[in-house]
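Course assignment 3, question 2. Fill in each field.
Student: A.L.
Task: Predict the tertiary structure for the chain below.
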Amino acid sequence: MNAVRIIPRLDIKGPDLVKGIHLEGLRVLGKPQEFARYYYENNADELIYQDVVASLYERNSLHEIITRTAREIFIPLTVGGGIRTLEDITSVLRAGADKVAINTAALKNPDLIRKSAERFGSSTIVISIELIKEKDNRYFAYTDNGREHTGVEVISWAKQVEELGAGEIILTSVDREGTGDGFDNDLVEKVSKAVTIPVIAHGGAGKMQDVQEIFNSGADAVSIASMFHYNTIDNLKKVSVEEAEGNVEFLKSKKGFAKVESTSINELKTYLDKQNINCRLNGEAKI
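Answer field:
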């Protein structure tokens, strides 16, 4: 079994790291570069940067943050939000990203997946699927942070993006994101069986057991925010915050986040290793 990956996710609005529930109600936590550096120093396998207001401006605005981060961390960095053209991909990669995550543009123009995979390589192209479970238990893809229904069924869309050349899929359960209720294991199991490319589960992690269960359901990687952000806030000596937009007390008070347990990356990896789930401890995976 290949080593699973633990990937902190950093949602970014302007210059700030933010967090919400169901991709809404965003509050400022601090500066993304400080969190990214801490995660890199504490054994993260990769990082995800998501520009959460890119849809408002129809472009990714993280170039300066990406460049500064890339100077200090040396693990793969995936950047998403507002990536709509081949030129956008080129720009973000030149800024220092290793991969790009595409959602809206891929749904509007699936051929962008094929063209981008041909130009930049499949390993560079990640398709982000934001999804909501309907009353009939079917899953449908959404855009604009879970606000815009596309009518596209998730399992068939996952198969299509693989056929078009995508190298990975990020599955974000809007229903569970930020809640600490656990991942949607049934969803991840279905998608993992439907495709052969890696599936990254995002949305719902509240405790270490949730992560164990999602790997047992077939995920190749997890993308986690709140669990790690709690721990990071407690351990960073200084977190810069714009007073006008909020402060770190939002997460520390756990208002709305009561189900989420503070966990470090190393604590999680040690736990997974004890459950016989292969992960990179101290930068190395078991053979």
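Instructor remarks: The two ends are 9 Å apart (CA to CA). Residues 154-164 form the longest helix (11 residues).
Grade: pending
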